[in-house]
Write a structure and sequence with these properties.
CATH class of the largest domain: Alpha Beta
Protein name: UDP-glucose 6-dehydrogenase
Number of helices: 18
Number of strands: 14
Organism: Roseiarcus fermentans
Bound molecules: uridine-5'-diphosphate-glucuronic acid
Number of domains: 2
EC number: 1.1.1.22
Radius of gyration: 24 Å
Catalytic activity: UDP-alpha-D-glucose + 2 NAD(+) + H2O = UDP-alpha-D-glucuronate + 2 NADH + 3 H(+)
Strand order of the largest sheet: 3-2-1-4-5-6
Distance between the termini: 57 Å
CATH topology of the largest domain: Rossmann fold
Enzyme class: oxidoreductase
Amino acid sequence: RKVLTMRIVMVGAGYVGLVSGTCLADFGHEVVCVDKEEEKIAKLRLGAVPIYEPGLGELLLANQASGRLSFSTSLKDAVEGADAVFIAVGTPSLAEVGSADMRYVYDAARAIAEVIEGFTVVVIKSTVPVGSGDEVEKILAARLPKDRFAVVSNPEFLREGAAIEDFKHPDRVIVGVEDDRGRSVMHAIYRPIERNAGPILYTTRRSAEMIKYAANVFLAMKVTFINEIADLCEQVDADVLDVSRGIGLDDRIGAKFLNPGPGFGGSCFPKDTLALTKLAIEAKAPIRLVETLVDVNEKRKIAMARKIERACGGSVAGKRIAVLGLTYKPKTDDMRDAPSLVIVPELQAAGAHIVAYDPEGVKAARALLSGVEFADNAYACLAGADAAVVITEWDEFRALDLQKVKAALGKPVVIDLRNIYPIKTMRALGFRYVCVGRGL
Ligand code: UGA
């Protein structure tokens, strides 16, 4: 099937920009990723990927070699002849306010307005509050006649650790577009996945912006719900794993995102739940359900530290606590809003000495956690510790030899905040094993 090649510019070579740019090149399009950071672009030109994402390195190299994917610091050079310019820059939470900081998106829009030539579609991929597309349109209209551009909202639904698969085989692609020319360019861009993925859903721009927040917040709500059900299970001697399975088999509920843990983290859920509450308050339609879940999730991380103390006989003062896993989830080196960033300092404040190991997160963790001793591998981390705490469910922790774990630990205490070990085996081996929501 013939692919109509589009010329695409990706502004922002961060996580979303790199994954999206690389996958679009792999679809057969010509893609230039642009970023202001010269050092980052220089490294990317040599094929060095600055983030950890399974499969990204290989895909990037292959598309670079084919000439479809390139990197530049010059937006002006890159946009020459481009059909679409994607904005994939960050929208961090504004300190103390909580709403999304739109500075980088609007800066990018102004820079784009300066340099685009023929008709160009400006696609917003960054997660932005409802109405941001209108603002970007105003910025462009201040410099350009209206028939020279179209502004489209095309939110991303990539999970870190599975981003390539998510981009290539999405459940759906959301395109918020207000005019036919914008729509036909987006159709050409996503045509290669039409057959082997979910539908492309065309909506208004504002609806597309809302879909992104509503989707993430719904998932965060599912996680928070099962976390609270887990706490209740502990009190009433029920097993949350059975409860998850039992409710998840109902199609209306669905089995995914029902694994209890130490609270959600990462670069999206914490930021997006907060941003939606602000947006709703400003729109005079406050969503109390979401306000509550933000609060519940914050408190949960602190509650996890107290749970660890209880499992250690009431206090961790003077104890050596081995922490397995620091990143907010496995298969990423991302430490943003990771529960470990609250749990570890709480334990330190209670007098614990923390020794930690993470397969990918140590580099980022060193800058964010002080007074922590970092081990080179899991067994070294466990050696002589008074208790082990699993915060992130990396596969290599599931695969640990539990006899060796017991032999390594000073005291056979395991607090498993991700339920990765079988209760019966742990108890048969003589561990004091504390997990989440399994009050059996
Ligand atoms: C999330 C969404 O899943 C993506 O669809 C979305 O595109 C992305 O945000 C984004 O807005 O860019 P991500 O942050 O990579 O992706 O991570 P998730 O896999 O969604 O996990 C988020 C948090 O929830 C993690 O801390 C994870 O440990 C936790 N979680 C998830 C649970 O505790 N239990 C679960 O059952 C599922």
